[in-house]
Design brief:
The chain is built from 7 helices and 8 strands. The strands form 3 sheets. Strands 7-6-5-8 form a 4-stranded parallel sheet. Strands 1-2 form a two-stranded antiparallel sheet. The radius of gyration is 25 Å and the shape is globular. The protein is α/β, with parallel strands linked by helices. Among the domains are: 56 residues, no CATH class; 137 residues, Vaccinia Virus protein VP39 (Rossmann fold, 3-Layer(aba) Sandwich), CATH 3.40.50.
Length: 287
Amino acid sequence: MPKEPKQRQDDNIPPPPQNNPRQCHFWVKRKRRYCHLPTKLGNKFCGEHLICDQEGKRRRIPCPYDRSHTVYEDELQSHLRKCNARPLPKQPYFSLDINCTLASSDSHTKIALSELPKEELDALIKKIEQWYDLLVPEIQTSVLDHPVLQKKMETLKNTKHAIQQASLLGHMEKLSLLPKDGCFIEFGAGKGELSRFVQAAVADDGSAVFILVDRKNMRLKFDSNIRAASDPSAVRRIWSDIKDLDLSKVDLIENKKVIAFSKHLCGSATDVTLKALVNLAKSTDHG
């Protein structure tokens, strides 16, 4: 007799949790499993999911500044004073959407792509692809290397990111973009590890300036390492969305050759970064 098809368990009805006192009881529906993070003894949920604990004596709520993390309700005011996502005072370089505008003709009505008829949208896409094929040459892959990453690679099992970092530094060196007295701006800096390697490649003697731009504050940053190997006043982290960043108002840039670099930018972030640099070139002598 043919076997009856296996009945799939209803996604809305999770199986009982494993018999493990440290197993978080939060069911991750998308992965169809329980959360792997451990709990404190006596708790059913890990710190990330304590908000789901209806039986706990202390209520956990989302942080008003960043809902991706939670905090005990009775510690909210204390948390808000030190939360890494708290709003910072307006800085001189903040200018709302300064890097989002493009010169355009007032005679043309702006239409959202989502509102275009399918035939017109298809024709537009075809036209863009034709111009791209005509004007943009084939991009050749060129993976370079740089000695400052050698020791790190020897200690890693997964060298993917280190290879990328070494290649970026190799290209910067090839293009003479590692001057000792340059102003190095890392966009989407994250923890700032790439800036730390740039500093090592420059063999900084205190003449260079390092600016790390990211809209989120990070833990375990490399900023202190960069400051320790340089003039601390020549290292600055800017917490800002790139779209709102007026580089002409950043005093460290003055009278310096600007070298902008990044490893983590998405397409739209790259667009506003390029616009920020164009605006800087227009407003100063950074041609």
